[in-house]
Write a structure and sequence with these properties.
alpha+beta; globular
Length: 150
């Protein structure tokens, strides 16, 4: 089965909310999705199957920087390369758009996400103590630089 990411929009918000609730304790509201999409503050890529929306990634592109805002895959679809596909597609968009660097923050205990981001070349650049409102856990800050000739 080929899981092809595509860009999502306003029509997908209900599916996004459902998936977001399944993946995170602290999630975006309908208004946050709407505002961000309408103002073009971020892009959202998603993967749909016959079972509906099973993975998504939200990221912002500002000047030459990309920031990963959210990335989640439905639990029964994990470990099938969906997050990797979403990340790779966002990297392709970055290269096309002349983006030079990417940032993200991730919970210090989130081993699957840490392994994923390290695999894609992200390096830790800092820590924000007790950053997350839901668990008061530390955030690890990561950065990736796109190769100059990409
Ligand atoms: C993190 C998450 C998005 C990974 O999604 P996924 O589709 O299962 O990831 P993939 O199958 O594409 O895995 C790609 C790579 O990530 C790493 N990885 C993913 N899940 C992992 C796990 N449970 N343990 C260790 N490494 C893992 C591996 O390096 C993997 O490559 P490999 O399969 O060749 O070993 C998923 O676990 C998730 O939705 N978690 C809950 C939400 C969340 O924490 N999001 C991140 C917020 S920053």
């Amino acid at each position: 089965m080929i899981y092809e990411p595509r860009e999502l929009g306003e029509a997908d918000i209900e599916d996004l909310i459902e998936l977001e609730r399944a993946c995170f304790n602290y999630h975006w509201t309908r208004e946050q999705f709407l505002l961000g999409l309408n103002r073009k503050a971020f892009k959202i890529l998603g993967i749909k199957t016959a079972a509906g929306l099973v993975g998504y990634m939200a990221f912002s592109l500002i000047e030459d920087e990309m920031e990963i805002l959210n990335l989640g895959v439905r639990s029964d679809y994990r470990r099938h390369g969906l997050a990797a596909r979403l990340l790779q597609k966002s990297f392709d968009i970055c290269v096309e758009s002349g983006i030079r660097k990417s940032f993200l923050d991730v919970k210090a205990s989130n081993e699957p996400a840490l392994a994923l981001y390290r695999k894609f070349g992200y390096k830790q650049i800092g820590v924000r103590k007790k950053y997350y409102p839901d668990t008061k856990e530390d955030a690890l800050l990561f950065r990736h630089d796109f190769p100059k000739d990409s």
